[in-house]
Amino acid sequence: MAFEQPLPKSLSPSRLADFQACPRRYQHASVERIPQPASYASAKGRFVHYIFEQLMKLDGPARTIDAARNFVEPALASVITPDVRQEIGLDEAGEARLLAETAVILERYFTMEDPRNVTSEGIELRVGVTVGETPLFGILDRLDRDDDGNLVIVDYKTGSLPNRNFDSQTFANAELYAVLCEEKLGERPTKIRLLYVSQGETLERPVSEVVIKARAGAATNAWEKINRYYDDGNFPATPSKSACRFCSFRDLCRSQGVPVPPR
Ligand code: SF4
């Protein structure tokens, strides 16, 4: 079967993760572009990211917790639109929960770093490069310059803290951002900081040449397969408990005879 839709023009870290988890998921999400239902968690993530983005766009001395709180109302208007409210079924109680959780996040964030002292080279930085023949694209929450003059990739996380036994997966997306930065700027970020703002905890990892090569190699390998599967008209399903657990396409796969494991 040939696809009616064109192949996406580039590969982003999150789409690469989709493909690596299950090529069929990539087919449904990125090639066929089947809409995936919004969730409270994803809406909350966008809501909190909006507040941090606005905060970091202020001049350094103005980045106070009161300034951050002042962006809550604009975030409601910009992110939690009537359509989003309807999609995730956000009623009054749901909005109260969102505001209460955001208040805790802001309190905790200001114990993690003082944004007045942060020097950022880019906020919501859009970076597109071609590595070999693989077009990559990503949007970085922040690209900071630390006190030693080194570039640091900073990513806000609104979910729960990951299992440290799976650090390689936890840092995978940000490490691909490092590939993008090195290719685009000719300078390799030296560190990744993941800010788990709901818990007030920071996970850090240095970026090495070995990691950069491995992530670039994995992306190239995936892009070659994506092109091959696209030409074949079929991306194989690789069901597993971890991949299928939160996948939006479970019913579709089941209807096509894919043995999707129970949640
Ligand atoms: S339900 Fe499982 S097999 Fe189907 S697309 Fe999602 S991850 Fe793949």
Q: In words, what does this structure look like?
A:
This protein is of the alpha+beta class and 263 residues long. Among the domains are: 40-116, no CATH class; 119-217, Lambda Exonuclease, Chain A (Alpha-Beta Complex). Helices cover 49% and strands 16% of the residues. The chain is built from 12 helices and 5 strands. It has helices spanning 13-21, 23-31, 40-57, 65-70, 72-79, 82-88, 92-112, 167-170, 172-185, 209-232, 241-244, 250-255, and strands at residues 120-131, 134-145, 151-157, 191-196, 201-206. Strands 1-2-3-4-5 form a 5-stranded mixed beta sheet, sandwiched between helices. Strand 2 (134-145) and strand 3 form a beta hairpin. The longest helix is centred in the C-terminal third of the chain and has 24 residues, at 209-232. It binds iron/sulfur cluster. Residues 22, 24-25, 28, 237, 239, 243-244, 247, 249-250, 253, 258, 260 line the site of iron/sulfur cluster.
